[in-house]
Design goal:
It holds the Pfam family CS. Keywords: Cell projection, Cytoplasm, Neurogenesis, Nucleus, Repeat, TPR repeat. This is Dynein axonemal assembly factor 4. The chain has 405 residues and is an alpha+beta fold. Among the domains are: 89 residues, Sandwich (Immunoglobulin-like); 147 residues, Tetratricopeptide repeat domain (Serine Threonine Protein Phosphatase 5, Tetratricopeptide repeat, Alpha Horseshoe), CATH 1.25.40. It is built from ten helices and eight strands. A four-stranded mixed beta sheet has the order 1-6-5-4, covered by helices on one side. A hairpin with a 3-residue loop joins β2 and β3.
Length: 405
């Protein structure tokens, strides 16, 4: 049973009421205060101060301060005037006091719920505003990146067009030079033939008898003696016969020959533009200089000419990796690996690079399990590569950390 506090003091003016409740040595952090328009309660066990006010007050505008061993209330009156006494007439009526107390508790709970709801609404509004600002920033950043990409794309296209124009000019000059050389050679041959015919006429006049074959061939230029050199391609597979993968190696050679066979292309393209090897070297040059978009364009043009050359897909995948086009990198690596079949020692290095690039792209996409599998496949090809092994261990640690959390 709490001890009622009766040694409180109070004062009033026409507009305000001031109440002082002593805390009797209790620490301020253990004080519980409830205040409504017609009810006050200060609980600090084992003491309890309870007051049913004579008239309503503005408890929202009122204040309650805890300090110096007491609780100080300043409560504005809703209607000006003097009360002459603090307690309501229901003081002592248990049923009325109980009802008033329950109403005060209900009012206090509703007020707290309202405050909590307002706080939640404010938090939601702040979150919505922050989200809108973030979306605006991301949209601006996305537009900036797209503008930069468009600028780089135009720049790469202009450079490619300039390069094409330069190649056309050089081709025209080369054609002109070859034509001049051909005409000069034909003129020289014609001059030589005329001189030989003149010489034969002079010989006849001297009375010398020509050979029958010479007479039959008179006026016809002799065919020059030529020589044809035949070179045999040495066998490039040093595998011992007992460990030979001859069927796979022959299939791989056949695929390489087929891969270098150029598809039908536009007649207007220059000789260099029809050469996938030249375009591959040009793409590698762009890649080395950091112009990855131009490199992608060069490799893509080469792929249209020779869609079965694995190196074109692998090199374009490296460009996509630099440009953070990770999904396209995965696609190109997968295509390269499909073309690198059957697996033989001669394409081991290319398969290793394709696995590493695809594994890196998977990790950037947070597909760590797929990335680890590709790194492990690369390690099967190059088991002594310590850098690959260290990268695979780091990916394995990331996967383990994710599973533990």
């Amino acid at each position: 049973m709490p001890l009622a506090v009766n040694d409180f003091t109070w004062e009033e003016t026409e507009k305000e009421v001031f109440i002082t409740v002593p805390l009797k040595g209790v620490k301020s952090n253990k004080v519980d205060i409830l205040s409504t328009e017609e009810y006050l309660k200060v609980s600090y066990p084992p003491y309890l101060f309870e007051c049913f006010l004579r008239a309503p007050v503005d408890d929202v505008a009122g204040t309650a301060q805890v300090g110096n061993g007491a609780v100080f209330f300043r409560l504005p009156k809703k209607e000006p005037g003097f009360w002459s006494k603090l307690h309501s007439d229901i003081h002592g009526d248990k049923e009325a006091m109980k009802q008033k107390r329950e109403e005060a508790i209900k009012t206090s709970q509703e007020r707290e719920q309202k405050k909590e709801q307002e706080k939640t609404e404010k938090k939601r509004a702040d979150s919505k505003y922050a989200l809108q600002e973030t979306m605006k920033f991301e949209e601006a950043e996305r537009k900036r990146i797209e503008d930069e990409k468009e600028f780089e794309r135009k720049k790469a296209t202009e450079e490619l067009e300039k390069w094409k124009e330069e190649q056309r000019r050089l081709a025209e000059e080369e054609k002109k030079k070859l034509l001049e050389e051909k005409l000069a050679a034909e003129a020289a041959r014609e001059q030589k033939r005329m001189e030989e015919m003149e010489q034969r006429k002079k010989t006849k006049k001297r009375g010398k008898k020509n050979d029958i074959f010479e007479e039959a061939a008179e006026g016809v230029p002799k065919r020059e003696v030529g020589k044809i050199e035949i070179k045999f391609t040495p066998r490039v597979f040093p595998t011992p016969v007992r460990e030979s993968q001859t069927p796979q190696e022959e299939e791989w050679l056949r695929k390489q020959v087929e891969a270098r066979r150029v598809q039908d292309v536009d007649e207007e393209l220059t000789e260099e533009e029809r050469n996938p090897m030249f375009l591959r070297d040009k793409g590698n040059s762009f890649f080395q200089s950091g112009n990855y978009l131009a490199a992608v364009n060069a490799f893509s043009h080469a792929i249209r000419l020779a869609p079965k050359m694995h190196s074109l897909y692998s090199n374009r995948a490296a460009c996509h990796l630099k440009l953070k086009n990770f999904i396209k990198c995965v696609e190109d690596c997968s295509r390269a690996l499909a073309l690198l079949d059957p697996p033989v020692p001669q394409n081991a290095d290319s398969r290793c690079k394709a696995y590493v690039r695809r594994g890196t792209a998977y990790c950037e996409l947070e597909l760590y399990v797929e990335g680890l599998k590709d790194y492990e496949d690369a390690l099967k090809i190059d088991p002594n590569n310590e850098a690959l092994r260290a990268d695979a261990d780091r990916i394995r640690q990331v996967i383990q950390g994710s599973s533990e959390s």
